[in-house]
Amino acid sequence: MPVIDMSSNPQCERQHPAPQRAEVVVVNPNGTLKNVFVWIKSGLAPAHWAPPAEPARLDQHGCVYQPHVLGIMKDQRLEILNSDPVNHNVHAESVTNPAWNESQPPRAEHKFKQFDTQEVLFPVTCSVHPWMRSYVGVSPHPFFAVTGDDGSFTLQGVPPGTYTIEAVHEKYGRKEGNVTVTPGGAATLEFTYGS
Ligand SMILES: [Cu+2]
Question: What is the pTM of this model?
């Protein structure tokens, strides 16, 4: 990934001891892919899943969105922070959910947002800093995860059943796999991107 040129804003640049690289593709040391959103796309019996009381958090730190990919439940609160000494402009480029675009000055109040419709994934950008880009996946149920530093994902507490699991990566796109979960059992599914 190319190094992000933050020279237009020294207050962004000086927060990074080492050059900040774009996070479009992050390959882990073990050869797996980070920042893949994984969720149960279909197969769940109709049910109402209550969102967690705790908000999901999206921070702007060093003029980079953290985390780069964020999963959130429908109707869960999203808390947006600006930890930087610079002005940001948070732009949720959602399509199914209403899009919005709001400035967030330094030391401003945290923003709280919600999304009431399933949408996997949409970008959140910053109108001030063109390199700032994160992705949000809104799930109607709690069975989603984002791959981390070892490329793995875990969906906890899935009821027994047969499901279509979807993996979504911002550059490499969507993959599907099927899995059957037995009562009290665990199932494993592996996705491969590339040739
Ligand atoms: Cu910004």
Answer: 0.96
Query: Which segments in the chain show pLDDT lower than 70?
Result: 195
Instruction: State in Å: Cα 189 to ligand 1 middle.
Output: 37
pLDDT tens for 110-149 read 999 999 999 999 999 999 999 999 999 999 999 999 999 9
pLDDT at 195: 60
How far are the Cα atoms of 38, 117, 191 from residue 32, in angstroms, in the given order?
14, 30, 10
CA of 123 from ligand 1 middle (Å) equals 14
Cα of 175 from ligand 1 centre, angstroms: 31
Tell me if 79 is assigned to some domain: yes
Give me ligand 1 centre to Cα 94, in Å: 18
- Whether 77 and 141 have beta carbons less than 8 Å apart is answered as no
Q: Is residue 192 part of a domain?
A: no
Q: How far is the CA of 141 from the centre of ligand 1 (A)?
A: 30
Cα atoms found within 13 Å of the Cα of residue 16, Cβ hemisphere only? 17
Q: How many domains does the chain have?
A: 1
User: Residue 92 sits in a domain of what CATH number?
Assistant: 2.60.40.420
